[in-house]
Amino acid sequence: MPIKFITVDAFTDKPFRGNPAAVCLLEEAIDQRLMQAIALEMNLSETAFVLPEADGGWRLRWFTPEAEVKLCGHATLAAAHALYEQGQVANGAVVVFHTASGPLSCIRQEDGDIEMDFPAMPVAPTVAPMELFAALGAPLAYVGASESNYLVEVENEATLRGIRPDLRLLATLPKWGTIVTCRAAAHEGEPDHDFVSRFFAPAKGVGEDPVTGSAHCSLGPYWSAKLGKAKLIGFQASKRGGIVRVEDRGERVTLGGRAVTVMHGALRV
Q1: What is the pLDDT of residues 60-89, one digit of tens each?
Q2: Of residues 46, 85, 115, 153, which has the active-site annotation?
Q3: 8 A C-beta contact, residue 139 and residue 153
Q4: What is the DSSP string of 109-120?
Q5: Structural domains in the chain, sorted by start
Q6: pTM
Q7: Is 46 in the active site?
Q8: What is the tens place of the pLDDT at every residue in 224-266?
């Protein structure tokens, strides 16, 4: 049974930037073990599986090479982009995904940005385990936690960009993801942004994630409160880099960005 797939670079408008995700466009349900095997074969940070449902919506699941995850921003953006590009959803129409984190809606704007409605994941101050300090090897100005992630603020971009984490140690922490962030410094020639971040999730088989939409469900509320504005732009300072537009709306956040297709084909399974 061939399964059509598309590889999409999310949170960028340039190939080989942003965060790549594979999107498998299913015509019928497949076994979870097969989905996990496909994700391992794709060997990207996330592979999305999209299945049409009777109500006009779409079932969406996300897998890393190691495990299924409850929420993934860049692979949701990639999935919406794939449906629009393939003509399965008309431009301007809302895509509704049914997921483990509840319904998520997406819409492509006239300027090409795709906006996604996600649950906010605010962090609360927490006592950081000593292993977190040791793994990051940098002074931490703030440590908070959500259900899944630590959020760590450092003093400046030089510190953030210079972190070389001990991924084995990070993988042993109670939270499976670690967000490191700081306020943005001005850089000539770079897009204006309000804050900078990096994201590590070795416990899920992802060392450093290139651009992490779901992390901005926490970064949005955090920086909105600190900077006193609801609409923000985040830059994720991985080697590939990417821009995420965020609007804090209380219990929900809007994440926005662009995507570009770099590959398509069919799996023979």
Answers
A1: 999 999 999 999 999 999 999 999 999 999
A2: 46
A3: no
A4: -TTS-EEEEEE-
A5: 2-118+257-268 (3.10.310.10), 124-250 (3.10.310.10)
A6: 0.89
A7: yes
A8: 999 999 999 999 999 999 999 999 999 999 999 999 999 999 9
